[in-house]
Amino acid sequence: MIGSPAGVAADAAHRGAGLLGIYYLLLFAIPLVGGRRLPVAPSPLLRAAAASGGLVTLLSIGFQLFPIVDVESPLRFGAKVAGVAVGANLVGVVLYVIGARRARRAG
To answer: How many Å apart are CA 63 and CA 74, to the nearest integer?
Structure first.
């Protein structure tokens, strides 16, 4: 990343990719929020496991936003990490849109 020492830049990029745990958070939410729409209602044990997994994922995301090495500005570091995560998601959206357009043309 521009203006960052190599170690800090690599750490921010790695953490940004790790923020993709947001998708796991969404998957853990299915038994908790969307369970009523499923053909078979999730058991209380499954709901408890999903809640536990969601909390651990939230904790992991929080830890990834804060640097474990000395950095000039923790806020700037967190912004860079979030920027990597947003950028990765935007690439995914673009690839999805391109694929959907090609599928519509072919079909």
So the answer is: 12
**Distance (Å, whole) CA 90 – CA 74:** 24
Q: What's the pLDDT score for residue 68? A: 74
Long-range pairs of 78-85 with CB within 8 A, sequence gap ≥ 24: 80/1, 80/4, 80/12, 80/16, 81/12, 81/15, 81/16, 81/19, 82/16, 82/19, 83/16, 84/12, 84/13, 84/15, 84/16, 84/17, 84/19, 85/16, 85/17, 85/19, 85/20, 85/22
Q: How does the average pLDDT of the chain come out, rounded?
A: 81
Q: Is residue 34 classed as helix, strand or coil in its secondary structure?
A: coil
Tell me how far apart the alpha carbons of residues 97 and 107 are, in angstroms, rounded to a whole number: 15
